[in-house]
Amino acid sequence: MQSYSIRFFRTCNSKDGKKQKKEAKILISKQVPPNKQVIFDKNCKKIWLLHFLCVFLRSNYKNLKTMLEKKLESALNKQVNAELWSAYLYLSMSYDMDDKGYEGIASWFALQAKEEFEHASRFMKFIGETGGKVMLMPIETVKQEWKTPQHAFEDTLKHEKVVTRKIYALMDMAIELKNYPTQSMLKWFVDEQVEEEDTASKILEKLKKIESSPAGLYALDKQLGKREE
Asked: Which domains does the chain have, with CATH numbers?
């Protein structure tokens, strides 16, 4: 990191009684242009230097505080939007399954939606803690109806794989930028996506096996309805 040097002078007496100027420097964070020098003599109050420092630090506080590069901050905000879109998607699935009489599956998707809202909150909290700014963007429309529960879970697995790719892309960016706090945070999501894909895949396989069995579908609906938060 470059040093920010503020130069100033003070007038003092030498051993022979002659007045002379002595130079001092204050180092902050960046390089000061040559013409930005603060000069004092014996009669000048230090309040001007303090004022200069206060103005500088106030205007540069954001840059000193942030741990996020703008590129990464923007990408994380896009992921917030993606997580909120996921929540909307699962809410849509929940109400559609409820309309079709699958109360257990509807409950499962409602809890899945809640989980996605929590994921979005996790990203937003991290952005704020690392000095970034949360930017909420419009959420695109989601699909409203699925022919069967199997179709809904086919879309669920497909969507979770898309989310996984997004998380991996964020991790690649964090590694490229050597942003270690972001890498640490994303590790939780990498592990989470393994579980998300596995769960959706297993439910889908069960649905395929009982495709022509109303009794089997009824039993699975009851089973999924027992999901806890």
From this structure: 5-65 (no CATH), 70-224 (1.20.1260.10)
